[in-house]
Amino acid sequence: MIEIMKTSIILVLLIGLAVPGQSHAATSGDGHWPQFRGPNAAGVSTNANLPDKWSATENVAWKTDLPGRSWSSPIVWGDRVFLTAVVNSGESEAPKKGLYFGGDRPAPSKSEHLWKVLCLDLATGKLQWEKTVH
Question: How far apart are CA 33 and CA 61, in angstroms?
Fold first, then answer.
C-alpha cells in the first residue's frame, strides 16, 4: 500500500492568486507562467498589484493537499497549474535545509517511487488530473 504524504501548495508568489478577480495576475500577458521564474526567466510580473506580504492565511486564494513531495517550479498555462511530485511507497526521509546533493546513502532506496505530473485548476486549486510518468 502506498503511503501518501500530503504537501500543502501555496502559489501566491508565483501566480498572484491573491489579487481578487485576476487569476492570471502574475503570469505573462498571454496568461502563462511557463518556467522557473516565469516568462523570460526574469522572476518579474507585469502586475503592479501583487501583495508584498502573505502568510498561511493572509493573501491566499486557495491551498490544496497533494500526494508525495515536490520541489519543482509550478507552470501556469491558461487556467491550469502543472506540478510534479514523487510518491514513495516506503518511508520518506525528512526534508533537509540548504543545498542537497543526495546525502550519504550506502545503497539506493528499495521502495517504489512514482513520478507524477499533476494538473490543478488555477481558480480553485482542485486537482483536474494526475499521470504517473515513471
Answer: 18
pTM of the complete model: 0.69
Within a domain: residue 102? no
pLDDT tens string 8-51: 333 333 334 333 344 444 555 677 888 888 878 888 777 778 88
Q: Collapsing DSSP states into helix, strand and coil, what is residue 19?
A: coil
Per the structure, how many domains does the chain have? 1
Residue 101 lies in a domain: no
In this structure, are residues 122 and 81 in contact, taking their beta carbons and an 8 Å threshold? yes
In the numeric block, the cell 491551498 is attached to 63
C-alpha to C-alpha distance for 112 and 117, rounded to whole angstroms: 17
130: nearest Cα among 98, 94, 82, 95: 82
Q: Are 125 and 62 contacting, i.e. CB atoms less than 8 angstroms apart?
A: yes
Q: Is 99 within the bounds of a domain?
A: no
Which residue range(s) make up the domain with 14?
1-94+108-134
Does 18 reside within a domain?
yes
